[in-house]
Amino acid sequence: MVEIITGIRAGRAKILQRRGRLTETVPPTLADRLQKTFGEPLTPEQAVARIIADVRARGDAALRDWTRQLDGVALSSIAVTPDEMDAAYAETPSAVRDALARAAARIRAFHEKQKPKSWLSGRGETFARVRSQFNEDVRFMEDRNAEDDLNASPLLGQRIIPLARVGVYVPGGTAPLPSSLLMSAIPAQVAGVREIVVATPPTIAPAILAAAKIVGVTRVYALGGAQSIAALAFGAESVARVDKIVGAGGLFTTIAKRQVFGAVGIDGLYGPTETLLIADDSAHPAWCAADLLAQAEHDILATSILVTTSRLLADQVAQNLESQISNLSRRAIIAQSLASQGAIIIVENLDEAMELGNAFAPEHLCLLVREPWNWVGKVENAGGVFVGEWTNEALGDYVIGPSHVMPTAGTARFSSPLNVNDFVKITSVFSVSAREARQLGETAATLAEAEGLTAHANAIRQRMRNE
Questions:
Q1: Nearest to 315 by CA among 290, 334, 294, 289
Q2: Which residue in 10, 173, 200, 361 is a FRET match for 238, CA 20 to 30 A apart?
Q3: How confident is the model over 223-271, as pLDDT tens digits?
Q4: CB within 8 A of 92, min separation 6: which ones?
Q5: Which residue in 297, 363, 389, 393 is the catalytic one?
Q6: CATH code at position 307
Q7: What is the three-class DSSP state of 314?
C-alpha cells in the first residue's frame, strides 16, 4: 500500500520530486472534459482564463451558464437566501451545531491573541495631544532620546487598518468543509473586516450554511471553481468585488486565484494537503498509521509521509495501515493516495529526520518522539508543528485553535498559516518638525542627487532654504 524507503538520500529523492508544482501533466479524463466543455483542447490555465474573461464580460449571465455547465446546477439565485440559511441551520443536527460553536469559540480565542496594534512614537506636547485623540488599541512609545524642544521631536508610527471586504472560498464536492469556513472567516472578524462573504460550490451542504450562521456571516454565494474567484475579484451584478480572497480549493480555484492576483489580494496558492510525521521507536504504530490514513482521505493527491528512526516501527505502521483501512468510508481514495504520494522513510537518527522535514517544508509537521519539545526549535519550515503524540493533526483541523489553512507545496519556506495579519493593511504615519526636516534634509538631498532625482532634492532643499 505504501512504499518503505531506507536512507535519507533515497527519501529526499522520493518526496521532493514533485515539490513546487501547481499542475502536473493533464490526466486524460480531465483533458477529455476540457475538450468537451470548450470544443477544443485547452490546458487548465487556458480554460480558467476563458472563464474569468467571460465572467468579467457578462457578469451574472456567465456565472449562471458556467455553474450549469460545470456543476450541473441551474441557479435560481446566486446568493443564498436568509430562509435557506435558516432551514439549513435547523436541518443540521444539534450535536454538529454545538461542535461548530465550540470550535468557533476556540478559534476566536486563539486569533484574538494575534491582533496587531497601531503604534505612535514621539515625545513632547504634540505627542501627548495626539495620544489623547487615539483609542486604546494604539501603543504609544515615548522616545526617551528625543530632545525636549517640541520642534525637535518627530512623530512616527503606523496605523493598522482592517480590509473592508473579504471573500472566503469554502470547498464543497465529496467532502464539504464547514470547518474551513470557521478557520477563514473568524480571523477576518477578529481583524475587524467590515464585510465577509463566502463562495462555495452548489449544492451546498447544510453544515456549511449552519457554520456561516453561527459566526454571523450572512452573505453566501452558491458559486464554485474559477467562476466564483472571477466574481469575487471583479464583481458581477449579484456579487460585489472584494479586496482579498482567502481559502483553499481545487485545481481550477487555485489557478484562478493565481490569475486574478494583482486585481485582488490572495492568501496563497494551496496545493493538495500534506502531513509529515517524525517518529522514533517510542511512537505508537497504530496512531501513526491512523494519522497517515486521516491525511490520505482528503484527496488522491494528498501526501502522507512517515520519517522514522525505527525499522520495527516502519513495519508495524505498514501493517496497521492495512488493518485499519478496511473500516474507512473513503478507503479507495486513501489507497490511491498512499500508493502514489505516501512513503515511510527510515533514517539513521532524528537529526536526519529533521533535515528531511525542513527540506520538505510540510503543511503539517508532527513530532511523535520521546522529547518532542527538544526538537521544536529545530523546525525551520512548516505550516504548523504538532508537538507530541496526543496533538494529532486531525484534532488541529477542527478545534485546537490555529487556522487549518496552511501553506503547502513547500511554500512554508516563506509563508505562514492564515492569520489575523492577512486581513489588515499597514499604513505608515510620518510627522517631522521644521528643525528635524532641516537636520535630515542634507542627507536626503545627497541621496536624491546620487540617484539622479533632482526634483526630489529640490523639494527637500526648498524647505531647508525657508529659514
A1: 289
A2: 173
A3: 999 999 999 999 999 999 999 999 999 889 999 999 999 999 999 999 8
A4: 206, 207, 209, 210
A5: 363
A6: 3.40.50.1980
A7: helix
User: For residues 337 and 23, what is the distance between their CA atoms, to the nearest angstrom?
Assistant: 17
Residue 191 domain flag:
yes
If one counts the domains in the chain, the total is 4
CA distance 311 to 128: 67
Among 382, 400, 418, the domain-final residue is 400
| Local structure of 451: helix, strand or coil | coil
**Average model confidence (pLDDT) across the chain:** 92
**Residue 246 and residue 309 in one domain:** no
Q: Could you tell me if 355 and 9 are in contact, meaning their C-beta atoms sit under 8 angstroms apart? A: no
Q: Which of 274, 297, 298, 364 is catalytic?
A: 364
Task: For residue 444, give the C-alpha cell.
Answer: 536626503
Same domain, 243 and 111: yes
Q: Is there a single domain that holds both residue 224 and residue 125?
A: yes
**Helix, strand, or coil (residue 424):** strand
Query: Is 352 one of the catalytic residues?
Result: no
Domain encompassing residue 367? 4-20+271-400
Q: Is residue 405 part of a domain?
A: no
Q: Which three cell numbers stand for residue 88?
A: 439549513
Q: Is the dihedral of CA 84, 226, 393, 414 positive or negative?
A: negative
Give the DSSP H or E segment for 306.
strand 303-308
116 with 227, same domain: the answer is: yes
Cα(121)–Cα(130) distance, rounded to whole angstroms?
11
Cell numbers placing 422: 492577512
Q: How confident is the model at residue 435 (pLDDT cuts 50, 70, 90)?
A: confident
DSSP notation for 24-67: -SPPHHHHHHHHHHHSS---HHHHHHHHHHHHHHHTHHHHHHHI
Distance from C-alpha of 235 to C-alpha of 378, rounded to nearest angstrom? 45
* Alpha-helix residue ranges (DSSP H) falling in 250-407: 251-260, 285-296, 311-325, 331-341, 350-360, 373-376, 393-396
* Chain center to CA of 312: 37
Query: Burial, 9: exposed, middle or buried (Cβ in 10 Å; 0-12, 13-18, 19+)?
Result: exposed
Known catalytic residue at 442: no
**Pairwise CA distance, residues 328 & 217, whole Å:** 33
pLDDT of residue 152 exceeding 50, the answer is no
